[in-house]
Structures are given as C-alpha cells and as structure tokens.
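Researcher: Please predict.
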Amino acid sequence: MPLPLDIRLMNMTAASLTVVFVLLLLAGGAWWLLRHPVFSIQAITVQGDVTRNNAVTLRANVMPQLSGNFFTIDLNRTREAFEAVPWVRAAVVHRDFPNSLRAVLVEHEPMALWGDDGSSKMVNQQSRVFEANVEDVDVERLPRLKGPDDQSAIVVQMYRHLLPLFEAVDMDIDQLELTPRGSWRVLTQSGAWLELGRGTEAEVGAQLKVFFRTLSQVTARYGRTPTALAGADLRHKDGYALRLRGVTTLEAQAQKKP
C-alpha cells in the first residue's frame, strides 16, 4: 500500500533538511579549511635564473603584492609580481602543498644597451626592451642600439644583419641608430659615423658591401688606410662621400690635380 501523503511529505522534508545540513557542514568545513593558518603562504622557493636577483630583492618586490593562502592565492597575479622584478623576463609559479609557492624564473639576457647614454634600458636576445641596473653588466662589451621602443625587433634584426659585414673588414659596430625619419646610422668603435640611409636589410647591406669593397682603393689615393676613416655618407645614389682623418678638403683637391 502506498504511504499516506502526509508521511511522504514528512520524509521529503526530512531528506531535504538532511541535504541542507550536509551542505552547510561541508561549506563550514571548507570555510575553516581555507582560512586555517596552516595554509597561509609560509615560503617561496625560487628556481631557474637568479644570477642578478637574490632572496632579499625578490622578497621586497613580490611579498607585498601577495594575498590569500595556498588555495586562494591568484597565481597569475603572483607571476606578474615576479615578472615586474628587474631582470626577470618570465616566471612560472606553482603551488607546493600545504603552504608554499615555487617560482621558476627566466632572466633577461642583454644583447645591447638601448637608447641614449645614461638610460637604464637594454634590449634582450628576444629583441624586447627592458629596464634594469646597467651596472650589473659589462657595458663595455655591449653595443648601443637606438630607435623607438616598439621597433626594437627591427633594430636588432638590422644589427644582426650588418654585424658580419663590419666584422669581415675588421670593424666593430659601437652604435646602430634608427632615426625618427627612418634612416640608419652606425658609429664604429674607432669613432667613424656612417650614414647608411633608408632601406631594407638587403638594400642597406648591398650599399655597405660596395662601400667596403672600394674603401681601400679610395683611401690609398690619399696615402691612407681604412683605419683613417672618420665618416661616410652612403645616401648618395651613385656613390658616397668620405671623410678621412688627416686629410682636409684642400689636400684632397690638390692630390686630385694631375
């Protein structure tokens, strides 16, 4: 025989109350668990590249930005806090039960100084501009690149294209600049300024090859070697203008006379 309606209603009510009680119990247990001091972040382990950062630097920059415990902490915000530390290029953050974090860091590897003298900016091997203490690197061994920050990849690419051309003639690039007008300029380590003009890597490289191929012949006319180069302007369509140390315009004209 089916149970009376009132009995069934009572059973349903009792079952519902039991479910609600269990849910409240679980919620209360979760609330207690999430806020228990044992799950407060007690330690951060740092792995990976830590050549230019130490525990003091990381603690001072990262800890004030952390909130929550092992379960509630935002790993994305924690990652961003690590990546905001000078020299840190990328970070991956993991939870280590019950109350620790583990951060794996990748540091910037500078390939050049960036911007004007005195700037704290550098550009890394991935062509990304970043700011850090330049005194942490051997600045004498780094070239200087200049240009808009959002075109750093173009400047780095041009530098890498031109470098072998200069090295082939025993010259070193001290500075490469992309001017606001889109023209390229090079300062060699010997102090010679070369105006390369506008163009793609292939176009600028082709002009430079012609210049280097004829430089020895031109300097020999004035009793000089390429080491006397003080400056050159390669922006002319059918040639280039040249300045040599120890050779004035009057001397050059006199030597041209038969």
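Model: Residues 250-258 have pLDDT under 50 and may be disordered.
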